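@channel sequence for tomorrow's demo:
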Amino acid sequence: MDGTVDQSVLDRVIRRVVQVAQPEKIILFGSAAQGRMGPHSDLDLLVVRDGVDALDLMGEIYLNLRGVGAAVDAIVASPDDLERYRDSHGMLIREALREGRVVYEAA
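structure tokens (generated this afternoon):
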């Protein structure tokens, strides 16, 4: 493994997340975004969506990702959450915004 994410797997994950969540944006962060994936790495996603219950949507996302061929950790946050926590130490939102890369943006 060369440390990079398999693009076909990432594309499949993004398609399934978009299908169920209809997000404004998806940000890939963590080791996959930094090209440091190892054999036990997962895909860390920040799914930006307004006007939904984050926990309910995360449950729907995980159900839709069954059998996708990759371990995925997804966090759902609203645009307001991004603003509120963008500079908060210890928050994954801060890490995602600083070190992640946008892998999907609604038209």
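heads up for whoever presents: Residues 7-21 form the longest helix (15 residues).
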